[in-house]
Structure to design on (575 residues):
């Protein structure tokens, strides 16, 4: 039924393969039940607050600070991942070194390792008596239970994004382009900045944005290492949980809506960036 | 198309790279510096934390380690985690296949919007993924009153944990299948249909064998995330020991009670799962490439 109506409206191209109406119908229903209706409930809940109340919740000192910490530190973490991700990608794609394949496979650890496990491991490592923390104490650097700890956790969970988005593009990059530039008298630095970076630039930005988006919403790996002091080292997702435990549902929802809207904007930006990257590298 | 976390769609075409001889390259000291910085960064952020989990877990020897894992609360958490993962992964497996069939085998308007919506859970904070179900089914939620009258528990019980896990792992299987099935096109299915096969026969005898390795990998990734999900489950679970505590939540409770060794013992199981998932990725990549 659906399929025939759809065809009449020119909604889809005709095909001899059966099951379009059924599978699309099931897909949309399941999507609505699990994702769309629950998210709509979030927006519906905020309508219980007047706009002034909403604004008061979101601009309260503690909420503003939590949002600042989440977004600010995520931005720094994404930037660190951009720089080091590029170095890692370059080493993995261009050079040979022992253990290369193992390191390449390990890049995905932050995707596969549960956030709570990462959280307790990083906290223990960077505690003042931990393997890495004890090395930093003489330098006067405290990591665990400070904003710096949050940053470490966010770098960890965002690490694979830049590497995995840039890697295929750099692998596909035609070496003849570089050779041509070099033959025409460009030095290595000019080749990198004028030939290589323009091609892989969009994918670098995509990886940066993905890493940022992931870090903003991160909860599990951060709460162990953060210390969770209000206004100092309390991230926005944690504030949502705290408000929820105090049964201040509307407050929790208001902060969640702000974060969700930010995620939507980021998602759109990422889609745009990816299309740009595909056009730029001729992979469309 | 957006890049999904860790999917094979982002994998590297590893074929021709080694055979090419490099003509242009950086001077040796620069190369060493770059490799050195890369390895130091990866070692500090990836290798050391992983080693630390197992080191801490076995810090008091094998018997205390086994003791921590066989503690009744730990056993209950492991059982609950396995049950939640089994239900959520099955649901997303069926959904992933159905969605991939609709999206990859037909051309219709609004397809890219649909793909974006399926990807949406990747970009939502896990805490929000839990919160939405509290707003729907919690005591003060939209259906809270109705549920209480009929004595149905969703929040602070298994159904809530499953719902939150399904939402968080929603895109994993579909995300693995869609690019591959799009790439494979519809010719084989069209041939099967023209030769008289029914839709289901075509699916089980043509489509499914063509994507089995990618499907397996999607299921593994989905499973790893389902077993390890913390934020979303934490919001809906209520942390009732022996009842609604999954493994990640149990890790948190033990850690906060300063039972570090026991906490890392449970964590080591999940870390092992992560390692197995990564090894499976490396192995399956070759098979998926052949598909």
């Amino acid at each position: 039924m659906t399929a025939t109506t759809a065809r009449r409206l020119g909604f889809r191209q005709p095909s001899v393969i059966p099951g379009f109406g059924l599978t699309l119908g099931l897909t949309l229903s399941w999507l609505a039940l699990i994702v769309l209706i629950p998210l709509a409930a979030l927006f519906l809940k905020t309508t219980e607050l007047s706009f002034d109340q909403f604004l008061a919740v979101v601009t309260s000192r503690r909420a503003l600070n939590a949002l600042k910490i989440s977004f600010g530190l995520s931005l720094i973490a994404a930037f660190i991942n951009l720089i080091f991700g590029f170095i890692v990608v370059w080493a993995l794609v261009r050079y040979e070194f022992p253990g290369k394949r193992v390191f390449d496979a390990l890049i995905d650890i932050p995707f596969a390792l549960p956030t709570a496990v990462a959280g307790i491991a990083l906290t223990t490592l960077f505690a003042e008596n931990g393997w890495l923390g004890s090395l930093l104490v003489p330098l006067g650097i405290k990591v665990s239970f400070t904003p710096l700890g949050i940053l470490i956790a966010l770098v960890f969970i965002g690490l694979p994004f830049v590497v995995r988005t840039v890697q295929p593009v750099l692998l596909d990059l035609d070496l003849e382009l570089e050779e041509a530039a070099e033959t025409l008298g460009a030095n290595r630095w000019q080749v990198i900045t004028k030939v290589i970076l323009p091609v892989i630039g969009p994918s670098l930005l995509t990886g940066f944005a993905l890493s940022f988006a992931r870090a903003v919403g991160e909860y599990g790996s951060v709460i162990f290492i953060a210390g969770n002091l209000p206004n100092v080292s309390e991230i926005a997702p944690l504030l949502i949980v705290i408000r929820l435990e105090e049964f201040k549902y509307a407050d929790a929802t208001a902060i969640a809506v702000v974060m969700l809207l930010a995620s939507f904007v980021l998602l759109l930006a990422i889609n745009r960036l990816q299309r740009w990257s595909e056009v730029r590298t001729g992979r469309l | 198309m957006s890049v999904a976390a860790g999917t094979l769609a982002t994998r590297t075409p590893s074929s021709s790279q080694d055979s090419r001889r490099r003509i242009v390259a950086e001077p040796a000291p620069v190369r060493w510096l770059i490799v050195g910085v890369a390895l130091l960064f990866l070692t500090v952020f990836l290798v050391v934390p992983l080693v630390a989990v197992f080191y801490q877990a076995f810090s008091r020897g094998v018997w205390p380690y086994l003791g921590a894992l066989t503690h009744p609360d730990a056993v209950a958490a492991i059982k609950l985690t396995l049950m939640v993962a089994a239900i959520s992964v099955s649901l997303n497996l069926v959904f992933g296949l159905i969605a991939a069939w609709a999206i990859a085998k037909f051309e219709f308007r609004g397809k890219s919007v649909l793909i974006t919506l399926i990807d949406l859970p990747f970009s939502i904070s896990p805490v929000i993924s839990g919160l939405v179900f509290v707003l729907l089914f919690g005591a003060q939620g939209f259906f809270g009153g109705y549920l209480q009258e009929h004595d149905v528990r969703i929040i602070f019980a298994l159904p809530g944990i499953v719902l939150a896990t399904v939402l968080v792992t929603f895109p994993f299987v579909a995300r693995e299948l869609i690019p591959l099935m799009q790439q494979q096109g519809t010719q084989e299915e069209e041939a099967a249909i023209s030769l008289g096969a029914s839709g289901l026969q075509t699916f089980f005898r043509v489509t499914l064998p063509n994507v089995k390795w990618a499907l397996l990998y999607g299921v593994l990734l989905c499973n790893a995330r389902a077993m390890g999900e913390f934020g979303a489950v934490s919001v809906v679970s209520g942390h009732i020991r022996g009842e609604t505590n999954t493994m990640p939540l149990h890790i948190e409770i033990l850690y906060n009670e300063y039972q570090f060794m026991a906490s890392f013992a449970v964590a080591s199981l999940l870390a092992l799962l992560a390692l197995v998932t990564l090894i499976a990725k490396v192995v399956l990549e070759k098979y998926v490439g052949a598909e």
The first helix of chain B runs from residue 28 to 57. Chain B touches chain A through 111 residues (CB under 8 Å).
